[in-house]
Amino acid sequence: MQLLLLGFVCTLMLLIPHASPVRFLYMNPPSHNFTSTTKTPSSSSSAHHGSRNPSLALLHRDVVTGVKHPSRRHAVLDLVARDKARAEYLARRLSLSLPEEEAEDLGSEVVSGLNDGSGEYYVRVGVGSPPTEQYLVIDSGSDVIWVQCRPCEQCFAQPDPVFDPSASSSFSAVSCDSTICRNLLPAGSGSCGDAGSCRYEVSYGDGSYTGGVLALETLTFGGGAAVRGVAIGCGHRNHGLFVGAAGLLGLGWGPMSIVGQLGAAAGGAFSYCLGTRDPGSSSSSNAGSLVLGRTEAVPEGAVWVPLVRNPQAPSFYYVGLAGIGVGDQRLPLQEALFRLADDGAGGVVMDTGTAVTRLPGDAYAALRDAFANAVAGLPRAPPVSLFDTCYDLSAYTSVRVPTVSFYFEEGAALTLPARNLLVEVDGGVYCLAFAPSSSGMSILGNIQQQGIQITVDSANGFVGFGPNTC
User: Fold this and answer.
1) In the CATH scheme, what is the homologous superfamily, with its name and number, of domain 9-469?
2) Catalytic annotation, pick one of 116, 351, 426, 457
3) Among 62, 159, 340, 368, which has the minimal tally of Cβ within 10 Å of its Cβ?
4) Known catalytic residue: 388?
5) What DSSP character marks residue 239?
6) What is the rounded distance in angstroms from the CA atom of residue 118 to the CA atom of residue 135?
7) Is 160 tagged catalytic?
8) Which one of the listed residues 105, 139, 206, 278 is annotated catalytic?
9) For the chain, what are the domain ranges?
10) Which pTM was predicted?
11) Which residues, 6+ apart, have CB-to-CB distance to 44 below 8 Å?
12) Residue 264 CA from chain centroid, whole number
C-alpha cells in the first residue's frame, strides 16, 4: 500500500501586490492516511526517551547575516549559484571516494544560510567553558565538527568573536596516536603536528577549506545542555564563503559527526524541520528546529523509509527511491534510474545543504513535461538560470497545480504540495524547483524537505517522515 502524506491537487494562492510571502491553499483539505509496508524501528531503539529534550533553532543564513538583496530575483540567483557549488561538491566527493573525516537528548533551532560553501541552515551553539556562542552550519553530508580558532593564521570574517581555546578551561588537544585521530584517516586528513598534536584538514568543492588541530571540547546546546569531550576541529587556517558562520556541525552517518559522537546518549537519531523559506526575506518567523536524540526523533505515526548505505560515501544518507508521480499518475520510469550501483554511483542522497532537487535527466524531463501538461493553460515565462520551467502568474489570484509524489521502495510515498515545488523568482514569476543532475547522483534538496518533520534514525537504518507539518 502507498503512504500518502498530502493530497493530490492543491491551489496556489497569489496575493496581489506581491508584498508578502505566497500562501498555498488546498481545494480539498488533504487527509492523512498513514499506512505502509515498511517496518518501523524496533522498540528497543526508543530506550532513550527522556523528559529533557532541549531544541536548537534552525535559522536561514539571511536571518543571521541580515543580507539585503536588491530584488527577489537576485536572491534566487544567489541561491542557484550556491546550489551549483554544493551539488558539484557532493558529486566530487563521491567520484573521489574520499568521505570527510569521520546523555541527554539535545536540540537547537535551525537557521538557513544561502552562500556558496556555507550551507543553507545554521544553529547557535556554545563552544568551550565558559561557552562562546557561535553560529554553525548544519550539514547532513559531513561528519566533521569545526570552528575558527585563535590564533588565526588565516580566518574569514564572522559576526561573533573567534573562539579562543586559551580562554576555555575544557579545551584539550588530541594526540596524533589516539583512536580519535585515526578516525580522520579515511579522509586523508589526520596527521601529526607540533608536540604530537592531531592535525585535521577538510576541503570543500567550492575551494573553501579549514585546517588546524583536533581537540576535545564542551559544546552547549539549546536550554543549557552541555556535552563534554566532543571532538572538534580548531581551525587556524580557514578560507571560503562561510558567510555568517563560525564553522560547521556535521550530522553525517560517521563516527566523527555530532550524532556519532553522542552515541547511546542520542540513540543514533536526530530530527529536523526546515522552516518554509521566502528567498530574499530576512524574517526569522519561519525558523525550523533541530533535535539531537530520540525523544522527539520518534514521533508517533511517523512512516519510515529504509536508509541505504554507500560504502564509497559512508557519511551520506541515501534513500531507495523507486519512482515519481505527478498528480495522481505515476510516471513511466525505470527504477534503475534511481538505484545505487555496486560501485557507489547513482542513488538518491537526502541533503540539507542542497536547495533544489536534482534528478537523472530522463526522470527530470518526464517530471517537467507532465507538470507542464497539467498546467498547459498557464502563461509561460522565460527560463531563469537553473530553472527552465517558469510561469508568469502576476495576473492571477489563484491557480490549480498538481502535486508531485516520491515513491519509495517497499511501498511508501511522500506527496508534496505547491510550496515544495515552486519558487517565486520575480514578481509573480514562479519556477519549478527541480533540475537535471549533472552526475549520476540524485539529490533530495531542502526546498522539497521544508515544512516536514524529518527523522534520521541511523542506528536502525531508517528515515521517518512525520505525520504533521511544522
Assistant:
1) Acid Proteases (2.40.70.10)
2) 351
3) 159
4) no
5) E
6) 11
7) no
8) 139
9) 9-469
10) 0.82
11) none
12) 23
